[in-house]
Specification:
Layout: E1 4-8, H1 20-29, E2 34-37, H2 46-56, E3 59-70, E4 73-80, H3 87-113, H4 120-126, H5 134-143, H6 151-157, H7 162-170, E5 185-186, H8 187-196, E6 200-203, H9 206-210, H10 214-223, E7 227-232, H11 237-249, E8 253-257, H12 278-297
Parallel strand pairs: 1-2, 2-3, 3-5, 6-7, 7-8
Antiparallel strand pairs: 3-4, 4-6
């Protein structure tokens, strides 16, 4: 286990289980000493997490994870060291919320076109604040007896993360059967919002979104990312190596994180990602945030 986990979620996210205070407590019990709660497109839990960590004797870096798109694919950009009350972040979050409401309806239509049976009320039972994600729909599919025997349902029924695994394999990439274009705002816009809030934009779990795509990664570098989460729960060793090389090539920060959510991804636990570079990663991130802070003050 690692003492450094720079990617965790609280219940302020549309898909997190625990409150910011609970996430801090769980992380500390797991041996995490430096963490970041990176809720999706919302910063309402940032101060709570920072304060809870201070009281617990550990460190929580102010952060957010923005849903964006580049080159026709969806990418998550984490902002570290942000001012959570920056207006640009709030506006970005509101635009994204409205888009996700539309996406939820499109996803349910797509799932029915794929031959699945489910009731909308059951989906909404699992959805937080009306934000419907594939995991919510797939949970309703699993519980609907009309889907018994469907090979695509049975394939995932006993998985630790059935909805998450179904999403990555069937819905996450253009051309896949369940793909719905997110309509996310451009990566450039998300990166600009993070920088306006005094933060450091870092690309999260790149291997999960584009494999080892050097050309598309370069586009994100040109869009303004300053770091990459080379070590995460969705990478194999070869992807860790690939993105570490990409970071060095473009002189980017390297980060690591579990992407802990709670029951949505039960096999992912705080501190579960070990890079062997923890001291270097944390030192360089702190140096960049301090330099960014000084720049903002001038």
């Amino acid at each position: 286990m690692s003492w450094l986990d720079l990617h965790m979620h609280s219940s302020e996210s549309m898909d997190g289980e625990f409150s910011p205070e609970e996430v801090v407590s769980i992380a500390k019990k797991a041996g995490v000493m430096v963490m970041a709660i990176c809720d999706h497109n919302i910063t309402t839990g940032v101060k709570r997490g920072v304060e809870a960590a201070k009281n617990a004797g550990i460190t929580c870096i102010p952060a957010v994870e923005l849903d964006t798109q580049c080159g026709g694919r969806n990418f998550h950009i984490i902002g570290y060291g942000i001012d959570p009350e920056q207006e640009a972040l709030a506006k970005f979050g509101e635009k994204t919320r409205r888009q996700k409401e539309q996406n939820g309806k499109k996803r349910m239509t797509k799932m029915r076109e794929m031959g699945f049976f489910f009731e909308e009320k059951e989906v909404l039972h699992y959805a937080k604040q009306g934000n419907i994600i594939i995991a919510n729909i797939f949970q309703a599919i699993l519980e609907d007896e009309r889907n018994l025997g469907n090979p695509l349902v049975e394939k995932y029924r006993n998985h630790d993360m059935p909805g998450v695994d179904f999403f990555w394999e069937n819905c996450s990439k253009p051309g896949s059967a369940g793909f719905v274009a997110e309509g996310n705002l451009p990566a450039e816009e998300g990166i600009q919002c993070i920088k306006a809030a005094g933060g450091i934009p870092v690309l999260a779990h790149p291997g999960a979104n584009m494999g080892e795509n050097a050309e598309l990664f370069q586009k994100l570098v040109e869009a303004g990312i300053e770091g990459v989460e080379a070590f995460c729960s969705y990478h194999q060793n070869q992807e860790d190596v690939f993105y570490t090389k990409m970071a060095k090539k473009y002189e980017l920060l390297i980060t690591q994180g579990s992407d802990f959510h709670g029951k949505l991804k039960p096999q992912i636990q705080p501190g579960s990602i070990v890079s062997g570079m923890e001291e270097e990663i944390y030192k360089k991130l702190c140096e960049r945030m301090e330099r960014q802070g000084k720049t903002d003050e001038t």
